[in-house]
Amino acid sequence: MTAKLRAALLCLLLSTFTVTAQACDNMPSWAQSACNRLDQIWTEGGHDLYMTGYAWHNRAMYSKEKIDSFNELAWGAGYGRSIYDEDGDWQGLYAMAFLDSHSKVQPIAGYGFLKMGKVSDNFRLGAGYTAFLTARHDIMSYVPFPGILPLVGAGYKNSMLYATYIPGSSGAGNVLFVFGRWQF
């Protein structure tokens, strides 16, 4: 896949989250609340810089040779918008691209939610989920597909460290993915 095609795919994934309040009015009533929240996140949310960095492969699920062949330095970056809602919970929209386990670019765009707990004025912990679209070279040759994963986070002031676990079977999946966010 060429760099231009990867960039176009990332833009397409990000554009799926650019909704407007007028578009929400034309939806069924059951979907209007979610649509309005996405619009609020995108229009009122703070700017977020995402940095990816580590993908740990569960040693109990892979041979040493296979582990040695994997790229676990999942370097990448992204952009998003997020808010802390009326309950103090974090909600965000994001798009990132990073190097996957085979050192190929993997784009992802999605929505994240964390139920937050304040440990102190500046430190907080959260647990929730992320729903997303992604594409991989080894799964349908970069045809986008959806997913939902658990998400945990620990934050200090404007920064947050996240982790999610991609489940799987022996020899597939079973990856702990760690990334960070800085809100500016």
From TrEMBL:
SUPFAM superfamilies, alphabetized: OMPA-like
Function of the molecule: Transfers a fatty acid residue from the sn-1 position of a phospholipid to the N-linked hydroxyfatty acid chain on the proximal unit of lipid A or its precursors.
Entry's localization field: Cell outer membrane
Catalytic activity, EC: 2.3.1.251
Annotated family: Belongs to the lipid A palmitoyltransferase family.
Bilayer topology term: Lipid-anchor
Species annotation: Achromobacter seleniivolatilans
Protein name: Lipid A acyltransferase PagP
Annotated keywords: Acyltransferase, Cell outer membrane, Membrane, Signal, Transferase
Catalytic reaction equation(s): a lipid A + a 1,2-diacyl-sn-glycero-3-phosphocholine = a hepta-acyl lipid A + a 2-acyl-sn-glycero-3-phosphocholine; a lipid IIA + a 1,2-diacyl-sn-glycero-3-phosphocholine = a lipid IIB + a 2-acyl-sn-glycero-3-phosphocholine; a lipid IVA + a 1,2-diacyl-sn-glycero-3-phosphocholine = a lipid IVB + a 2-acyl-sn-glycero-3-phosphocholine
Signal peptide: 1-23
Assembly mode: Homodimer.
Molecular function terms from GO: acyltransferase activity
Keyword Signal: yes
Pfam families in UniProt: PagP
Chief subcellular location: membrane
InterPro entries registered for this protein in UniProt: LipidA_acyl_PagP, OMP/PagP_B-barrel
Top EC category: transferase
